[in-house]
Structure formats: C-alpha cells, structure tokens
Design brief:
The protein has 171 residues and is an all-alpha fold. The protein has eight helices and no strands.
Length: 171
C-alpha cells in the first residue's frame, strides 16, 4: 500500500491553495499545486497523474518544501551554472580578427570552420555547434539562399505572378 507523503505545516493548506491559484509563473504554480494536493491527503502517484509530473519529481518537490519551506518552491533553472566560456576576451578578439578576413576555403565562414579555428587556437577539439554559436554571437547570419526546385519553369512562374489569384473552376 502506498505511503502518504507528510509535509510540515510551513503554510496552512488553505494558503497553499491560494498561492497555487495566485501564482503566475508556470513552474511555481505547478509546485504549489503539488504541495496543496499532497497536504490535502492525496498520494504521490495520484498527484503525479493529475499534474503530469513523475512520482519521483513530486517527491523531490515535497523534499524541497520539507527542507526549505516556501523558499524551496519555484523554478531553479536560472541558478544553473552556465560553465566557463571557451574563449576569453583575447580569444574572442582573435576570432573577430579572423572573421574579418576570408574564410580558410575562400568562401563564407561556417560554424564548422569557426570550430576548426577554435580547435587550433585552444589546442583541443571543439564541436561544430560551438563554432556556430560563436559565429552567431559575432553577428554573422546564414548567407546561403533558400533552395529552389530544379524542375521549376521560369515562364510558368512568371505567368502565375502576372495572373494573380484566379477563381477555382469546379467542373
């Protein structure tokens, strides 16, 4: 038989409901709903099925609330460490100087080419996605035209543009 999660009375059940209904941030609103339902005597599995979260996550929210009280409720993703940047200020300046010149193949700079440049500069492998991120951070945008169909007939396209929209003929 499943065990009920018990929560300390940091906040009365009626206030938990009020906080749930008043919350505007979606994550905080879900967390308050979880706590309100648990405090109302619902099992973790039932709360998980109502809220769409896993039982593990419902228990995690309950644990945070037990340990930290109302301060433990809400979205914590903005506290996640972003990690150090791959290029420091001098590295970014060197990259910008390289981007001002021609690409290694003589064409346009690509994310793969920037990653290759960064790999040489940092003396370690860099994934092409990181090159693309640094390229867009430098203000570069994709420069290739959208693909066109090879079988397109220019005369038919011109006639369509001149004719505009025509009523649909129903047989």
């Amino acid at each position: 038989m499943p065990v009920f999660l018990t929560l300390p009375a940091h906040v009365p059940v009626a206030e938990l409901e009020q906080r749930y209904r008043a919350a505007r941030a979606p994550v905080a609103r879900s967390h308050w709903q979880i706590l309100w339902l648990l405090s109302g005597g619902h099992r973790a599995a039932a709360v998980a099925s109502v809220t769409g979260y896993s039982v593990h996550w419902v228990r995690e929210i309950a644990r945070r609330y037990r340990e930290e009280g109302p301060a433990g409720v809400g979205d914590r993703r903005h506290h996640n460490p972003g990690g150090p940047a791959l290029l420091d200020a001098a590295g970014r300046a060197a990259l910008h100087a390289a981007l001002a010149g021609p690409a290694p193949d003589g064409g346009l700079w690509t994310g793969r080419q920037v990653a290759s440049w960064m790999s040489t500069y940092l003396q370690r492998p860099i994934h092409p996605q990181r090159g693309w991120e640094y390229l867009t951070q430098a203000g570069f945008t994709p420069q290739r035209p959208r693909p066109t169909a090879e079988q397109a007939d220019p005369a038919t396209q011109a006639a369509f543009k001149k004719g505009g929209s025509r009523p649909l003929s129903i047989p």
